[in-house]
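Please describe the entry underneath.
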Amino acid sequence: MLKRVRILADYQFGKDIGNQLFPESCRFITSRRGGVRQVMLDGRRLATLRAHDGRLTLGLTGAKRLCQIVNPPGCRVTIQDDVCPYIAIGKSVFAKHVMHAALDIQAGDEVLVVSGDGTLQGVGSAMISGKEMFLSECGVAVSVRKGKDQEDKE
């Protein structure tokens, strides 16, 4: 199971990310059929394996780990500081508030939403590409699944 989620992480986030994101001490919650459902570390959710497409979605703990592993601007959408309080409680990121986005981000990718100083504000799914986020003036850029202030509910 560990090998599988590490390979998925390498595919989604970049070469050799899986080994760093998912240490040997990870535990797994499995589905009724025996497949991986969630990856846990010290009782905290690192990631969930989506059944419909087999991709990983990160919990806040996993997002924090990824933020430390991947060098900027990788997997990141940088937002204006004045909207950080809204993102921290789980509100969506609008394109007009995006200051910078990694150009390799594609719609549907798992992304880290960070403030201007690089502090993690939330994690979610990109609704449009990184280039579109930076160039657009309207619409949702990132659907935030979890904001940093929602941590205790995870």
In short: The beta strands are 27-30, 36-41, 44-49, 56-58, 76-79, 93-94, 98-101, 110-114, 120-126, 140-147. The two ends are 22 Å apart (CA to CA).
